[in-house]
Amino acid sequence: MLLTVSLVLLAYLMGSLSSAIIMCRLFSLPDPRSQGSGNPGATNVLRFGGKKIAIMVLTGDILKGLIPVLVATYAGLAPAGIALVGVAAFLGHLYPIFFGFQGGKGVATALGVLLGMSWLLGLAMIAVWVVMAMIFRISSLAAITAAICAPLFTWLLVPDPLSMPSVTVMAVFLLIRHKSNISNLLHGKEPRIGEK
Asked: Quick check: is 192 in a domain?
């Protein structure tokens, strides 16, 4: 029990390390919360910081979801504990204690959690995102589609029944965090990938 609580806490703290804000500070760029969409994530950083830094942000956000789940798995936590660790890392990204609880939308971190649960599940979500992004060139639409598909793919690909509730929780939070994007999509105002 103590190990589970400790790893959940550490996962939240790791999730709270905002890759976008940290990278922007390291490279003397503006705070991503004050630029573009105001979201501290790779897509927004791409708009004003370029591909190199955006890739670094994306990688960092994925790893802070992936690493805690892998650690929990190798530490021998029960499936429920592993699920809690994954959700904690995800919520840390959304509500980071180190940055005034003003976090990103959680797409990359959720992907890291899914990859930790099942490489096949994570790759399936990447495939959904890539196909939608290639067709429509809108990152948020690709992310929303992947979020909607995630619980179903979890049910199909992950044998542990406790994985689906945790993935569903993350999917709901992802949709809530994309509320403004959904409104923009409905009104044809959502920017395309690479637009300033």
From this structure: no
pTM recorded for the entire structure: 0.94
> What distance in Å separates the CA atoms of residue 139 and residue 132, rounded to the nearest whole number?
8
Helix 119-136 with 139-157: angle, nearest 10 deg: 150
DSSP-derived letter for residue 29 is P
In a domain, 196, yes or no: no
111 within a domain of the structure (yes/no): yes
Cα–Cα distance measured from residue 169 to residue 172, given in angstroms and rounded to the nearest whole number: 5
Residues 57-78 pLDDT 10s = 999 999 999 999 999 999 999 9
Euclidean distance between CA atoms 95 and 27, whole angstroms: 23
Angle between helices 163-177 and 179-186 (to 10 degrees): 60
Distances (CA, A) of 81 to 2, 71, 109: 11, 11, 18
Tens-place pLDDT, residues 93-149: 999 999 999 999 999 999 999 999 999 999 999 999 999 999 999 989 999 999 999
| DSSP secondary structure letter of residue 191 | P
Determine the structural domain holding residue 180 and report its residue range.
2-186
CA 130 from centroid of its chain's CA atoms: 15
How many domains are there within the chain? Answer: 1
**Local structure of 38: helix, strand or coil:** coil
Q: In this structure, what token pair is assigned to residue 124?
A: 């399936």
Q: What is the pLDDT of residue 191?
A: 87
* 191 assigned to some structural domain: no
Q: How many CA atoms lie within 13 A of 2 on its CB side?
A: 0
